[in-house]
Amino acid sequence: MSQSEVLFRRFKNDGIAELKLNPLQKLMKVEVDKKVKTGIYQFEVVDCAVCGSSSNDVLSEKDRYGLFYNVKICRECGFVFTSPRMNQESYNTFYNVEYRKLYGGLEHANETFFIREVEHGRRIAKLLESHEIFLDRDKLVLEIGCGAGGILEAFRQKGMRVKGFDLGEEYVKYGKDKYGLDIEVGTLADYKLDHKPDLIIYSHVMEHVLDTNSEIEMISAICHENTIVYIEVPGIKSIHLNYEKNLLKYFQNAHTFHFSLNTLSNIFCLHGFKLLYGDEKIRSIFKKESCSQSIKNDYFETLKYLRNQERFRTFYLISPFGILKMLNKRLSNLFKLMRSALGSKKQSKC
Ligand SMILES: [Zn+2]
User: Fold this and answer.
1) What is the pLDDT of residue 350?
2) pLDDT-based confidence at 206, cuts 50/70/90?
3) Which residues contact 266 (CB under 8 A, 6 or more apart)?
4) pLDDT confidence of residue 174
C-alpha cells in the first residue's frame, strides 16, 4: 500500500457520514467542518507514539460523521493513530461546544446515566476479582475521567475509598451533590494526595488523550509496588463484536489513538508496566513490573484483521442475519417516529 493510498475506497474523505445523523448532529457537523476549513480548528502532525517512526499507511481520511479524520498505521510497529489531529486547544473547544451534541450523548447528567456507570463499575470489579485482584476494604481507588462517579460508586459500595477527576463540570457536580462522592474537576495532574492509589482506572479515556507517553509516566509516578492499573478502550480488533461490524462506524474524530491489545501493551511496557490480563475489547490490567519484552510489531496482524473484517462486512450485509437486523432497525425507527408523532398530537390537544 503506498503512503497516499487509503486502505479501502469508502474511507476516502468525501464528507459523507456513515451514520444517519439527526438534525442537531447535521448542524454540528456543518459547524465543525466550517471551523476546520477556516482554520479555527488547528491540526498537528504526529509520529508514532510507540516507536517514533514517521513511516505509515493511511487507513482512513474521514470519520463516521463524514468529518476530516486522518487515521494511520505505523509500518514499524502497527500502532494506529490519528495524524494530523486537532491540537489540544482545538480539542478543548470541540469538547465544550460540539462534542456531546454531535455524538448524540446525554447533554445533562441524570440518574439513568449514573446507574449505567455503577453497573459498568460492577463489571470492572468482577473482572478484576476473577483475575485475583482482591478489592479489600479501605483500599484507595482513583479514576481519571470518572464522569459522574458511578464506576467509583460501585467500588465505594465494597467499602473502598475512592477519588475521581473529570473535566465535565456538570457530571462532577451531580456525583458530588447527589452521592457525596469525592470527585473533582480536573485530570491526573491535579492528584495531590500523599497516599498512592491501590487501583487506578481509565475507562474509555486513554483513546482521547493527546500525549499518552506523558500520561503513563504520570501514572507511574503515583503507583506503589502493588498498584493495579485498569485500562479500558475501544479495541480496533473488536469491530466484529461492535459498531455493526463496520470499521467506519468505529472511527470518530474525538479518538486520537486506536489500540489493539499488542499496541497498548507495547506503549505501557515502554514505561515499565507489565500486562497481567487483556482482551481485544479492550479491558486490560497492568502492574508496574520490569517489562523485558521488546515491541511486538502488530502491523501485519492488524491489516489482516481489518481486511478480513471489511470482506466479512460485505457478506454480513447480505446475510439473512444482516437483513433481519437492518429490518429490525428500520422498524424500531418507524415506531420511534410514530411515538413522537403521537406525542406531539397529544400535546397540541392539551
Ligand atoms: Zn510505531
Assistant:
1) 41
2) very high
3) 50, 77, 79, 295, 296, 298
4) 95
Residue 39: C-alpha distances to residues 33, 42, 185 (Å): 10, 6, 29
C-alpha cell at position 218:
504520570
255-275 pLDDT per residue, tens: 999 999 999 999 999 999 999
Fold for the domain defined by 111-294: Rossmann fold (3.40.50)
Lowest mean pLDDT among 33-47, 215-229, 251-265, 334-348: 334-348
Domain span(s) for CATH 3.40.50.150 in the chain: 111-294
Distance 263 CA to ligand 1 centre (A): 9
**Ligand 1 center from residue 18 Cα (angstroms):** 28
Distance 141 CA to ligand 1 centre (A): 32
Q: How far is CA 204 from the centre of its chain?
A: 4
CA 51 to ligand 1 centroid distance, Å: 4
Expressed in angstroms, the distance from the first to the final Cα of the chain is 63
